[in-house]
Amino acid sequence: MVDDDARIAASIRRALVYEGYDVAEAHDGHSALTAVRDQVPDLVVLDVMLPGIDGLEVCRRMRDAGDDIAVLMLTAKTTVPDRVNGLDSGADDYLVKPFAHEELLARVRALLRRKSPAGREILSFDDVRVDVDAMDVTRSGDPVDLTALEFRLLEYLVRNQRIVLSRARILEAVWGLDVDTTSNIVDVYIRYLRQKLGEPSIIQTVRSVGYVVKSG
Q: Which residues have C-beta within 8 Å of that of residue 17, sequence separation ≥ 6?
């Protein structure tokens, strides 16, 4: 994520991290190019107005170097020529400031799906299909729109289908944190998944223990 405005950068970072993404930051064009070269990301959220090398030039140099990384360009410029310049520089999508975090996250999800490789790992249970690399979920062929964190939780549960998983184990595997086991965050996200996946539920509660993916 590249933006020289500390307040905006912090806001975007919080939104992305909350949804389960790992986020690295850069605050100017030179450091952005260095960061991309040192550790290739899945996607770059790139502001146009940057000190030194602007976002348009950063994107051009990435494309000239053969980088096929997804690029979501951010700008306060709203005219059609400005948007055309952003797309012509090699950006995959263009978002005008100010924007809602919900729209930013939706565009990030769409770009990650679009840029996923052709060879994919597919997990399934009953009529639920989880495309791991594309971060796509369908049930009976119908798409299920999940946040990044909801997707990670479902992926973990389906990978371990028919295995009873404690809340503590789920917290460690999905959130990657030593979270207080009295937290109800797992229960909250299980409820989100059940609502989005619909009935019959493939996620069963094991009283006083945790959850398991199995037929009801």
A: 23
Evaluate if residue 215 carries a pLDDT over 60: yes
Q: Is the per-residue pLDDT at 200 higher than 80? A: yes
Do 161 and 142 contact (CB within 8 A), yes or no?
A: no
CB 212 within 8 A of CB 158: no
Which letter does DSSP use for residue 125 in this model? E
- Do 9 and 27 form a contact (C-beta atoms < 8 A)? yes
121-167 pLDDT per residue, tens: 788 898 899 988 788 899 988 999 999 899 999 999 999 999 999 99
* Alpha-carbon distances of 53 from 31, 32, 130, rounded to whole Å: 10, 9, 40
**How much is the pTM?**
0.58
User: In CATH, what is the architecture of 6-114?
Assistant: 3-Layer(aba) Sandwich (3.40)
Residue tagged 């090699």 (tokens): 90
**What fold does the segment set 122-213 form as a domain?**
Arc Repressor Mutant, subunit A (1.10.10)
